[in-house]
Design goal:
heterodimer, A: 253 residues, mainly alpha, two-stranded antiparallel sheet, 10 helices, flat, B: 364 residues, Arp2/3 complex 21 kDa subunit ARPC3, two-stranded antiparallel ribbon, 4 strands, 66% helix
């Protein structure tokens, strides 16, 4: 497997955030997102504080702002959806620049945009400071079913291999003068997909045989056991705890 | 269509998360029963395949292109349990690694995109394959229908979740129209691609297609340029023969009842039947209340908005037969399923006893 050992979002570094055990980071991000989602949307200042908190984490992790903002682009389809909301929602309407907008829709759009962006930013920060293998170990430490973690680890391990196979098929098609232009060419592409499935499935069988011949009996040995000290836990959970305080203030005010 | 955080409120997300966790637990057990310890590598590689095939762009024309969602394809190729696992793992990894879809919305995303599509597609596919003749073409047609319905079905489930826990007050009708409308279009593309892909796999390795188990061609030999059936050397199994005759019975019964309901009722008497006649004669029916479903589109055995009384009655008959067949075979399937499961556990118990007696316990 000559494929890279890190995923596209990972950013190598030696910051304190990188050094945290993965499961503490996963738990922290999950708790943070839950807190963000349950904040009332009328407390606009709370979301600004959340963004500040994430900025602080990014600064500690030495993730540049440009990198973070570029990764936020994945959200664009939902921004388009959010822009539509004020036009279609029900209720009281207000005139802005000659357009009749729904007040409720404006709040809804703000809600989706703010919470969605914060969620994506938190996930991006997690992915850019945690290696792939660590992430899977973290999921396992968080008591996800071992079989599910194994499936996920096989998926990420062979994802690049299968994608490369797809790329080689494309090159083979193109070098024979094929260019997919419209619906008429779907047959050829679907045959590629079918061939890819057969190759993936057969590779799975070979991988399984290779594993069995090396003593695999249904569970993977964990070589590097990661444990988190109390200090590390408290360091990681500082983010969701701060967010929780903000959230409670948001409900109270 | 990955929902982000904050799109569905926290309680409904939590409930969807619980539902997703339950479904995944059931699938884990089911997949392990099907694949044993092969589950992890095979399901992992199929998940990688789904992940890769979502990157395969299908040009629609005018510079736009779409891609496969893969729920229906996974269900047909590797079965419902493994299919749910594969698509769920892809969604999990997309949320954690690529920030595509919110972490709190993961339950919602898995419920709509992994569980609904897979189950709907597999149920439809199996249903159609059992009814249709066992050919490759009917395989492709079933895959088409299964994928076509699965995508709008997932949109419907999403709309339901939105109706319960949506954070914006958009009228439900608008959301439903927009979601289902768009997804019917997406579904057509998904259906074409899924059908073509399943057709391509069935042509080469029909044994790999989970939904096509039992579709086995007889071995043919070419003797002096002519295709001849190879002599059957294997021990004939009694079960398939029974199944085949039962299928003929099935199809005959279905066709007969459809003809009776749809065509013969065309000429049937519009007079009230015996009991109704007695009731009117004796004035019993004065107290009869309108049935609760009197407003339903099929009320009084006629289809609303179809003026011709006979045509309407026939159509209602056909629809009624269809609904009865679906409901009846659903119950039958569940019962038979449970019975075979019981038998299987019994078998396993006897196996265990046999294993316990053997001196060496080798698990391969």
């Amino acid at each position: 497997m000559g494929a890279g050992h890190a995923h596209r979002l990972y950013r190598h570094g030696h910051s304190p955030v990188h050094a945290l055990p993965p499961h503490t980071k996963l738990a922290a991000v999950l708790a943070f997102v839950v807190v963000v989602v349950s904040t009332p949307r009328e407390a606009m200042w709370a979301f600004a504080v959340y963004a500040g908190l994430l900025g602080l984490v990014a600064y500690t992790a030495r993730v540049p702002a440009g990198f973070l903002l570029k990764r936020l682009l994945i959200e664009v389809p939902f921004v388009a959806f959010a822009v539509l909301l004020p036009f279609v929602a029900e209720g009281e309407r207000v005139g802005v620049l000659g357009l009749s907008l729904s007040v409720n829709g404006l709040w809804g759009a703000w809600n989706v945009l703010a919470k969605g962006t914060l969620g994506v930013a938190a996930s991006v920060l997690l992915a850019s400071t945690t290696e792939l293998r660590e992430l899977l170990l973290g999921l396992q430490r968080l008591r996800l079913p071992p079989l599910l973690v194994q499936i996920a680890s096989f998926m990420v391990r062979y994802g690049d291999v299968i994608t490369d196979e797809l790329r080689r098929m494309r090159i083979a098609r193109e070098s024979r003068g094929f260019e997919a232009r419209g619906v008429r060419h779907w047959g050829v592409l679907a045959k590629s997909a079918g061939a890819l499935f057969i190759r993936s499935y057969e590779r799975g069988e070979r991988v399984h045989l290779a594993m069995v011949s090396r003593g695999y009996a249904g569970s993977m040995p964990v070589i590097d056991e990661v444990t988190a000290s109390r200090a590390q836990w408290s360091y990681a959970l500082a983010l969701p705890c701060a967010a929780l305080v903000v959230c409670l203030l948001g409900w109270a005010l | 269509m990955h929902a982000p955080d904050g799109f569905i409120n926290a309680p409904v997300s939590a409930v969807a998360g619980l539902a997703a966790a339950g479904a995944i637990a059931v699938s884990l057990r089911g997949a392990r029963r099907e694949l044993d310890e092969k589950t992890a590598p095979l399901a992992g590689l199929v998940a990688a395949f789904i992940f890769a095939v979502q990157m395969l762009n299908f040009p629609v024309g005018a510079g736009t292109s779409g891609h496969l969602l893969g729920g229906a394809l996974a269900a047909i190729l590797v079965g419902p349990y493994t299919g749910v696992l594969c698509v769920s793992v892809v969604l999990l990894m997309q949320a954690v690694l690529f920030a595509d879809g919110g972490l709190t919305a993961l339950g919602v995303n898995i419920t709509t995109m992994a569980i609904t599509t897979t189950i709907v597609a597999y149920a439809l596919f199996r249903g159609l394959v059992t009814v249709l003749p066992r050919t490759r073409r009917s395989m492709t047609a079933s895959a088409f229908v299964a994928a076509l319905v699965s995508v709008p079905a997932s949109a419907v489930v999403f709309t339901l979740l939105y109706a319960v826990g949506g954070t914006t007050d958009v009228s439900l009708g608008k959301v439903a129209t927009a979601m289902v409308g768009v997804h019917v279009l997406i579904g057509v593309g998904e259906a074409v691609i899924t059908a073509l892909t399943v057709g391509a796999v069935v042509a080469v390795r029909p044994d790999l297609v989970h939904g096509a188990r039992g579709l086995r061609q007889r071995l043919k030999l070419r003797v002096n340029g002519e295709l001849v059936d190879a002599p059957d050397t294997s021990v004939p199994e009694p079960v398939p023969a029974a199944a085949r005759s039962r299928r003929t019975l099935w199809i005959t019964g279905l066709v007969t009842s459809l003809v009776l309901a749809g065509f013969v009722s065309f000429y049937a008497s519009a007079d009230p039947d015996g009991l109704e006649k007695v009731a009117t004669d004796h004035g019993i029916d004065k107290k009869a209340e309108e049935h609760a479903l009197a407003d339903s589109p099929l009320a009084d055995y006629g289809v609303e908005d179809v003026d011709d009384a006979r045509l309407s009655g026939g159509l209602a008959g056909v629809l009624g037969v269809g609904a009865t067949v679906v409901a009846g075979s659903g119950v039958f399937w569940v019962v038979r399923r449970r019975r075979t499961d019981d038998r299987r556990t019994d078998d396993r118990r006897t196996d265990d006893r046999a294993d316990a007696g053997s001196p060496t316990d080798v698990s391969v």
